[in-house]
Amino acid sequence: MVVDDHRLLAEALASALKLRGHRVLAAAAPAAGAAELVITRAPEVCLLGTATPAEPGMFDPVVRIKRERPQVAVLVLGPVPSPRGIAAAFAAGASGYVRHDERIEGVERAIMKARAGEAAVAPQLLQGAFSELLNPAAQPDDEGQRLLQMLTPREIEVLVRVADGEDTRLIAAGMGIAPSTARTHVQRVLMKLGVGSRLEAAALAARTGLLDRAGPVPGPSAPLNGTGPQA
Questions:
Q1: Alpha-carbon span 20 to 25, nearest angstrom
Q2: What is the rounded CA–CA span in Å between residue 82 and residue 73?
Q3: Are 221 and 174 a contacting pair, CB within 8 Å?
Q4: Residues 16 and 130 in one domain
Q5: pLDDT tens digits, 176-210
Q6: Does the predicted TM-score (pTM) go above 0.70?
Q7: Triad 132, 136, 137: Cα angle to 5°
C-alpha cells in the first residue's frame, strides 16, 4: 500500500511497483487517513509519505498501525532527514526510511528488507545520522541572546529607550539619573554593540529580536536632586 499527501506521487510509485510484479492494494492520499486505511486493508508493507519527518506527531499513524496491525511493515518515504527524523520514525515502529528521490530499485530493496523483518535504511543515511549525533553541528548563533549577555541590565534599559526614540534628556528623566550619566550609558551601549549611532543601535536591536527579549522598560524613576521635569 502506498499512502502520500501527493496523490500523483502515490499513484506513480504504485504503478512502478506493479510493473515490477508487486501487488499494490491501494495508492491513496492524504497521509492523514493512512492508519485507518492500513488497519482495514492490512497490507504486508505500507509506504507512508511525509514531508516533515521531524514534526511532532508526524508518526502517530505509524504508532497506531503497529499497535493494531503489528505484522504490517511501515516504510517512511521522506526528504533527506535529520537524525531526529530518523529516530522519530523508528521510535514510532517504522521498519525503514526511504528518501523521496530514491530510485525504484532502492524502494524495492527496502520493501524486501522490511518484509524480511530487517531495518530498511540506506547506509549513507545512517552514517550521516550517526555522524551528526556524535558530532552535532553548532547551532546558529543567537545574536540577540549574545548581545543581551554583553549588556548590563541598566544598559539594556538604555538601549530599549534609545530604540523607543528617547533622547538623552528623556532617558535621564525616565531612569532618574543625571543627563551626563545617561549620555555615558548610551556611549557604552554603542561601543559594546559596535555601532556608531543610536539609529544603528536601534536597528540592530530590532533585527536580532533583542527588544522582544528585553521586555518593557520600567516606569519613570524619581529624579535626582530635583533635576527632573516638573508637572
A1: 15
A2: 22
A3: yes
A4: yes
A5: 999 999 999 999 999 988 888 888 888 888 878 77
A6: no
A7: 105
C-alpha cell at 105: 530499485
Q: Where are the alpha helices (DSSP H) in 2-103?
A: 7-19, 34-41, 60-68, 83-92
Is residue 114 a contact partner of residue 97, using CB atoms and an 8 Å limit? no
Helix axes 153-163, 168-175, angle to 10 degrees: 130
In which residue are the cell numbers 518484509 written?
115
Same domain, 116 and 68: yes
Domain with 33 in it: 2-134
Q: Looking at the structure, do residues 91 and 46 belong to the same domain, yes or no?
A: yes
Cβ neighbours of residue 49 closer than 8 Å, sequence gap 6 or more: 2, 3, 4, 5, 6, 9, 10, 31, 76, 77, 78, 100
For position 101, which CATH number holds? 3.40.50.2300
Report how many domains make up the chain: 2
